[in-house]
Amino acid sequence: MSNLSGKGRVYRGKNAVLIPVVAVALALLASLPFFGGQKTMREPYGGGSAEARFFDVGQGDSAMFLWDEGAILIDAGTNASQRELVDYIEDLDVDVIDCAVFTHPHEDHIGGADYVLEAFTVKSVIMPELSTDTVTYASMMECVDEEGCPVYDATPGEVYEFGDVTLTVLSPVREYDDANLDSAVVMIEYGETKFLFMGDCEEEAELDAIDKLGSSAFDCDVIKIGHHGSYTSTSEQLLAATTPEIAVISCGKDNEYGHPHRETLGKLDELDIEVYRTDKNGTVVISTDGKNVWYSK
Ligand SMILES: [Zn+2]
């Protein structure tokens, strides 16, 4: 069991009604439209190394931080990519997910949450205190209830420890009327390296969080850019606070929103930040030895 040290826990899992979800993906991974048709076996890390995988889930978000002793999932992609996502995680030899962070209840982030919860043992869930009336959300919550694991509200300042890995919640620092702004923003630390996952957080919430927690709380090596590279996110203040070496943008090829927007790409380019995109690079893997970070593929 992970050493969860968070406070202010809210357990939502009660009175579960099991609605069976078909979690067995029959299609061969090589024939699937996502993940670039690659089957990728994970090598044992050993000797103090880890990696973040930003899955190509089309126009959506899903990433996993993996180290020898565990795995943390941040978002679960779309309904359309859910089978492929489960297959991909299974190919990484993951059976147990120590923590699943569902940043906010939009379909492009929680579409595959029900499949993931059915397919793997999920030991804890972190999500903002937010609900919607969509079928996708209801399906996820049924599976969360069935899983019976603790569910924690995303509360800034809360720290969760998973052996060598620490997860800190940084946003939302208040309630908003917009689910994107309510996104749970989390920092994952491994050794001296830090990975920041912005969900679909946008400028207003970025500034509020920096104001409340201070710039240094956001300093990182790798940033998963907010809201698929929309111009409404990734403020200059956020980039000044984060000073990342590497930025990853999760978005679909030729998506209808025009993500990532040129304003965002321009800011990253100006600061000489390495940029990788799931629409161009496919699934992006960033490795760390606890001191340095680098693009693996
Ligand atoms: Zn999104």
Mean pLDDT: 88
Structural class of the helix and strand makeup?
A: alpha/beta
How would you describe the shape?
globular
Distance between the termini: 31 Å
Q: Characterize the main sheet.
A: 8 strands, mixed
Overall number of structural domains? 1
Please give the number of β-strands.
17
List the bound ligands. zinc ion
Q: What is the CATH H-level superfamily?
A: Ribonuclease Z/Hydroxyacylglutathione hydrolase-like
What would you say this structure looks like, in words?
- There is one protein chain.
- This protein starts with 49 loop residues before the first strand and ends with a strand.
- The chain is globular, with a radius of gyration of 17 Å.
- It has 8 helices and 17 strands.
- The strands form 3 sheets. An 8-stranded mixed beta sheet has the order 8-7-5-3-2-1-16-17, with no helix packed on it. It has a 7-stranded mixed beta sheet with strand order 9-10-11-12-13-14-15. Strands 4-6 form a two-stranded parallel ribbon.
- The model is unreliable at 1-41 (pLDDT under 50).
- The relative contact order is 0.15.
- With 297 residues, it is an alpha/beta fold.
- The protein has one domain: 4-Layer Sandwich (Metallo-beta-lactamase, Chain A), CATH 3.60.15.10.
- The chain binds zinc ion.
- Zinc ion is lined by residues 61, 106, 108-109, 200, 228.
- Residues 61, 106, 108-109, 200, 228 line the site of zinc ion.
